[in-house]
Write a structure and sequence with these properties.
Blueprint: H1 4-17, E1 44-50, H2 70-73, E2 78-80, E3 87-89, E4 92-98, E5 103-108, H3 122-134, E6 149-155, E7 158-163, H4 170-175, H5 182-185, E8 206-212, E9 217-222, E10 236-242, H6 245-253, E11 259-260, H7 267-270, E12 279-282, E13 285-293, H8 303-312, H9 315-323, H10 337-343, H11 349-356, H12 360-369, E14 373-374, E15 380-381, E16 391-396, H13 400-414, E17 420-425, H14 427-436, E18 441-445, H15 453-460, H16 483-494, H17 498-515, E19 518-525, E20 528-531, E21 535-536, H18 554-562, E22 564-565
Helix pairs in contact: 1-10, 8-12, 9-13, 15-16, 16-17
């Protein structure tokens, strides 16, 4: 990725800045460019997303629903660009840490109104965080669970977050929490089942207009009373959900859509080179794709078995066929390329390289060492001589990149005598299976963050796991826990000394390489594909004002605040 040194410098700056006791972010717009009245207003941006959405929901707190328009209707306090570390003030204008980092104070924006005309206040912010506390299923990012956060209260134009222990990295999670209006949500009997599809009230730049289940189309229109004067430039956004990435590509090529956030194979040849002046991409690496193994199911509960699976996967072949070399093979620690120089323990480089090397013979030897051997039919048997069952590899329906990876993995591990089938599931079933632990193996992404702490915090924290299958694991999908990792996460969160933070990460990295709680496969890029036929102002490698992504991510709001008619 370009400008890695700049990213690392900003990451370090962010790491240190959050310990200051004075207000941060004064007089900055972050990733939102200054309003230019000379820009041409109007137009309908057509967005196409792959993956049919059932059921439809605009509940910004629900982890179960696919949310194509939530960031455009509901806003968070800040937007943190996980590539640059830059912070964009939204409902919050600045923040500071006090009392030895046990108190976070956020100053909220004045003059903001909810879309029904009710003034936005700090009470709405405090109410939202306490609502998330009341309903733990909303707490996907772990704002409350074992985080040390004790209370959230409003005081004038500020919100005060009180901690029982230092946890400065939680700022990123707090910053990105969507805020809901107290005067409406206080009267909802069960917000966990609330779909919020009738006149949702937010502070964002757009208002919900309609949703058609027949053609899977959502329309949002410009909020004329948005707090940022002169924005957005566009009048309307139409989001069409289709059944596959291939359909998305066809619509883009026909100029029936302006923006698609789907993976296209061989992107340069099939999209960019068709019309380089019009067909644009922004695919920055900020995450990874991984094979998650359900460690509460045998034989995936055995670390040696998991390591054998990793060695049996030809990750270079997988990356070339799934992504045509656009992102590269993921580091087995899960650290993204821009952070490796700063955060990977250099003594672990040889071990990481070995784990990423395709070595089916070594994989077979490891399996034999724990009693797993092939029978006369070439099927792998357990130490008791019982043939292993056929395992399912869970992927999202229509996600061609994940399907391609699953096909290659299935072929690779069949050489070990392991039989698999690919389970394509719609979003609701896919995420439900991951969280409930009913899957065997699944391909999913990691977590974006300005340092490796965030992926380890979300994916390996026991607070986000579950003790048995059927119980909901909020984000620790592999259900692997380790007390040494838990302690290292606590050390990182308790100190402002970057040397100690690195040592904590080094501890986790070694355990990840030894125990393989998940198998990083390929670096994950944001698949942002744009057409400059009608609209300009899209993010790019030369102007990375946000991390890219789809309308259902916070970067989507930033993009829609910046683009305008040609």
């Amino acid at each position: 990725m370009k400008k890695a040194s700049v990213f690392l410098a900003l990451t370090v700056l962010l790491a240190f800045s959050i310990f200051a006791s004075e207000w941060m972010l004064n007089q900055t717009m972050g990733g939102i460019m200054p309003t230019n009245s000379d820009y041409k207003y109007g137009g309908t941006v057509v967005v196409v997303n792959s993956g049919l959405q059932t059921p439809f929901s605009i509940n910004p707190l629900s982890p179960q629903a696919q949310l194509p328009i939530v960031p455009e209707i509901y806003e968070s306090l800040f937007y943190v660009n996980t590539i640059s570390g830059e912070i964009t003030p939204l409902l919050g204008v600045n923040y500071k840490w006090e009392d030895n980092n046990l108190k976070l104070i956020v100053k909220v924006r004045n003059g903001v109104k909810w879309s029904d005309g009710t003034p936005f206040t700090s009470n709405d912010v405090a109410f939202t965080f306490n609502l998330v506390k009341k309903y733990p299923s909303f707490d996907v990012s772990g704002i409350w669970k074992n985080s040390g956060l004790q209370s959230v209260e409003a005081s004038g134009d500020t919100v005060i977050f009180n901690f029982s222990k230092q946890n400065t990295p939680l700022f990123v999670n707090i910053a990105s929490q969507y805020i809901v209006p107290e005067h409406i949500w206080a009267d909802i009997k069960d917000p966990t089942t609330f779909t919020n599809t009738i006149n949702p009230v937010g502070t964002g730049p757009f208002l919900f207009k309609s949703y058609s289940p027949e053609n899977q189309t959502t329309i949002i229109v410009k909020n004329p009373n948005y707090w940022m004067k002169g924005r957005p430039y566009v009048d309307q956004v139409e989001i069409q959900n289709v059944n596959s990435n291939n359909t998305t590509l066809l619509m883009m090529l026909k100029h029936e859509a302006d923006w698609g956030s789907s993976y296209f194979p061989d992107i340069m040849n099939i999209w960019v080179n068709k019309d380089p002046q019009i067909n644009k991409i922004y695919w920055p690496v900020n995450n990874f794709n991984a094979l998650y193994l359900n460690t509460q199911k045998s034989p995936f509960d055995n670390p040696i078995f998991r390591k054998a699976i990793s060695l049996a996967i030809d990750k270079n072949d997988l990356e070339q066929k799934a992504y045509f070399g656009i992102g590269g093979v993921a580091n087995p620690t899960g650290i993204v390329p821009a952070q490796i120089g700063e955060w990977l323990d250099p003594t672990l480089a040889p071990l990481a390289s070995e784990l990423n090397t395709y070595n089916p013979q070594k994989a077979q030897e490891l399996l034999a060492s724990i009693g797993f051997k092939k029978n006369s039919a070439g099927q792998l048997t357990d130490p008791n001589g019982k043939t292993l069952p056929t395992f399912k590899i869970l992927v999202g329906a229509g996600w061609t990149d994940f399907i391609t990876q699953a096909q290659i993995i299935s072929e690779n591990i069949s050489k070990l005598g392991i039989s698999t089938i690919i389970d394509q599931a719609p979003w609701s079933a896919y995420i439900s299976s991951l969280m409930s632990g009913t899957y065997d193996m699944a391909i999913c992404w990691g977590i974006s963050g300005p340092t490796p702490y965030y992926v380890y915090y979300q994916r390996l924290n026991p607070a986000f796991s579950a003790s048995k299958i059927g119980e909901s694991a909020l984000s620790n999908y592999s259900r692997y826990t380790n007390p040494l990792i838990t302690s290292a996460l606590e050390v990182y969160a308790s100190t402002s000394d970057i040397r100690l933070q690195k040592q904590a990460m080094y501890t986790i990295e070694r355990i990840v390489l030894d125990d393989v709680p998940f198998i990083p496969l390929t670096n994950r890029t944001n698949f942002s594909n744009f057409s400059a036929a009608k609209f300009v102002g899209w993010p790019s490698d030369s102007d990375p004002y946000c991390a890219g992504g789809a309308t259902n991510g916070q970067g989507g709001e930033i993009i829609l605040l910046n683009i305008h008619l040609k």
